[in-house]
Design goal:
Blueprint: E1 7-12, E2 15-20, H1 27-34, E3 54-57, E4 60-63, E5 76-78, H2 85-98, H3 107-120, H4 126-133, H5 144-150, H6 162-173, H7 181-184, H8 191-194, E6 200-204, E7 214-216, E8 219-224, H9 227-234, E9 259-264, E10 276-279, H10 303-314, E11 318-321, H11 324-330, E12 338-344, E13 347-354, E14 369-375, H12 392-405, H13 415-420, E15 424-427, E16 433-440, E17 447-455, H14 462-481, E18 511-516, H15 527-546, E19 552-553, H16 559-564
Parallel strand pairs: 1-5, 6-11, 9-19, 13-14, 17-18
Antiparallel strand pairs: 1-2, 3-4, 3-5, 6-8, 7-8, 9-12, 10-11, 12-13, 15-16, 16-17
């Protein structure tokens, strides 16, 4: 029962609890902040769009970040911690075997959604899986491996060495990452999960707020005794999705004769774990990277330095938490470009502009590249070359120019690159090589199958290497077909909800076949080459489908993109 709107009672994981709550506090806040249950994750609160905070209320899946705590009075709430461990272990082991978790931030919510599904049917149908996963987002895995886990597919990864699996994860992701059943269940060591719950909590002060604040790491922070208190003082306003059209911020350049032109948008990295850190006075702040590297996007996050400075100012342990809207406004994006490329006498000529220099890497065809590039200041969110494969734009432009020129892709390829050549071949500067072929549906309006061949040194662990490659396909297809941020003329990001970024959902993700070829030598990152090669092959595939090469990413007007957005 509720006593003067400050006490509520319910059954949580089989035990009766009575909890003091703030006015308007959510079930997610009660579970994490009051009861210390860390399996429900806050990926977008209070947007209710990512599914990371899914729990059961009276046995039915519920998104807890938009469920008022008052609505569970007298009801039964179950988190992953309260589910029969045998059931959890059985499904988590399937996720682990297929590589269906990387950072593990989204998987506890997916497990909670899908545990009833696999209990009813050990091999649920594609339709049932699509319905279950429609409420969830995953940035890392590309969905194929999650669907395989839910269907109990046999993928032949018995007798794995999980230490070697972690080494392959670090090779691909750039930061230390644990690979085990704990990580699948969201216990990989995320900063906000490990923060002491009696610490002060700092949230960013909204521009429109007049709340008292403290400056640290170049930003204004509102500090409260709890997360709920800090948010209440800051008067955080939920982000919205704009109805304005998505338009590349740099004007398209004229199409050169026999060449290609391309203009791209700001792209949100869209990692699911919002930046967080905590620090004791005089101590070292917890890493914002948690159990994953966020594709390079957290390299310069302000939360770690803010936690250190605020702990010193207050002489208290301080926990710093960014909301989803803060991540979108402050986090670095993939910079937009406007460029052309044309192959003339065996030389690729690239001309264009962007807020940052174009990064060009050697290509497997040994084609010299001549670049004429100008830096153009445009209003918008911060951009960074720390994003995945910053050389992708130049490589994709080269591949487009090669396709238009009818260049023989086998020409000048060394024996190693010839092994992977499918429709395209891309070499990572660090040594990974990927070939990609894309198969369209009979009507040409859908990508049905993406085939990969990859050389990435010693594989160490097939499931992890394969998972990263499939995830790279997912991200590349999104970049070409559906992802981008709408930014107004003043440079203010208008798309602040996580669903507005255009991340491809599971029902639209094609089948991906990965062939990891024997490759002597030390492990090399393979997924970045897959990302770039897939983007180039997708650009060519859209051209085959429509008859005209799209001049923008995302190619929203293409037949394939329209199918995805239905």
């Amino acid at each position: 029962m509720v006593d003067d709107m400050s006490q509520l009672s319910f059954v949580c994981n089989g035990e009766s609890v009575v909890v003091a709550v703030d006015q308007g506090e959510t079930l997610l806040s009660v579970l994490r902040e009051r009861l210390g249950l860390m399996s429900p994750k806050d990926g977008c609160a209070p947007q209710g769009q990512c599914g990371c905070c899914t729990v059961w209320v009276d046995g039915a899946p519920r998104v807890s970040c938009v469920t008022p705590a008052a609505r569970v009075v007298g009801r039964v709430v179950t988190t992953l911690e309260g589910v029969d461990p045998i059931r959890v272990t059985r499904l988590a082991d399937r996720f682990l075997a297929s590589g269906a978790a990387q950072c593990g931030f989204c998987t506890p919510g997916i497990l909670m959604r899908c545990l009833p599904l696999v209990a009813i049917d050990s091999e649920p149908t594609a339709v049932a899986i699509d319905r279950a996963l429609a409420a969830h987002l995953c940035r890392c895995t590309g969905w194929n491996t999650i669907i395989e886990a839910l269907r109990g597919a046999e993928i032949g990864v018995e007798h794995r060495d999980l230490d070697r699996a972690s080494q392959r994860s670090m090779c691909e992701g750039g930061v230390a990452q644990c690979v085990d059943a704990d990580a699948v269940c969201g216990r990989g060591g995320f900063a906000d999960d490990t923060a002491p719950r009696d610490a002060l909590v700092a949230v960013l002060k909204p521009l429109e707020s007049d709340a008292p604040s403290v400056n640290a790491a170049g930003a204004e922070w509102v500090i409260g005794a709890s997360l709920s208190s800090a948010k209440s003082q800051a008067a955080k306003i939920q982000g919205r999705r704009t109805t304005a059209p998505l338009v590349p911020p740099l004007a398209n350049l004229p199409l050169p004769a026999g060449g290609v032109a391309l203009a791209t948008c700001f792209v949100e990295p869209a990692y699911l774990e919002p930046d967080a850190s905590w620090c004791e006075p005089g101590g070292e702040p917890a890493s914002a990277a948690g159990n994953g590297g966020a594709f390079g996007s957290k390299c310069n996050s302000i939360v770690e330095s803010a936690a250190r400075e605020l702990a010193a100012l207050t002489d208290r342990t301080v926990r710093v938490v960014l909301a989803r809207e803060d991540v979108v406004r402050l986090g670095p994006k993939r910079p937009p470009i406007s460029a052309t490329a044309v192959l003339i006498n065996g030389v690729c000529h690239i001309s264009g502009s962007s807020p940052m220099p174009l990064v060009v890497s050697p290509n497997p065809y040994s084609i010299p590249t001549h670049v004429s590039w100008s830096l153009q200041t445009i209003a918008g969110p911060p951009v960074s070359h720390e994003q995945r494969a910053p050389w992708a734009e130049a490589a994709v432009l080269l591949e487009g120019a090669i396709e238009v020129a009818g260049f023989d892709r086998r020409k000048n390829l060394d024996e190693r690159s010839l092994e992977v050549l499918l429709d395209v071949c891309v070499a990572d500067p660090n040594g990974g090589v990927a070939g990609v072929a894309i198969e369209l549906s009979d009507h040409g309006d859908r990508i049905e199958h993406v085939r990969l061949r990859v050389l990435a040194g010693e594989i160490l662990d097939v499931a992890v290497a394969r998972s990263y490659c499939i995830g790279a396909v997912h991200m590349a297809l999104g970049w070409v077909l559906s992802e981008g941020l709408t930014v107004d003329d003043d440079g203010v990001v208008q798309d602040l909800t996580i669903r507005s970024f255009g991340i491809i959902r599971p029902k639209h993700m094609p089948k991906v076949t990965v062939e990891l070829l024997p490759d002597p030598g030390a492990p090399r990152r393979g997924s970045d080459a897959v990302f770039v090669a897939t983007a180039a092959a997708a650009w060519n595939a859209v051209t085959r489908s429509d008859g005209d090469r799209p001049a923008t990413f995302p190619a929203l007007g293409s037949r394939i993109a329209r199918t995805i957005r239905k």
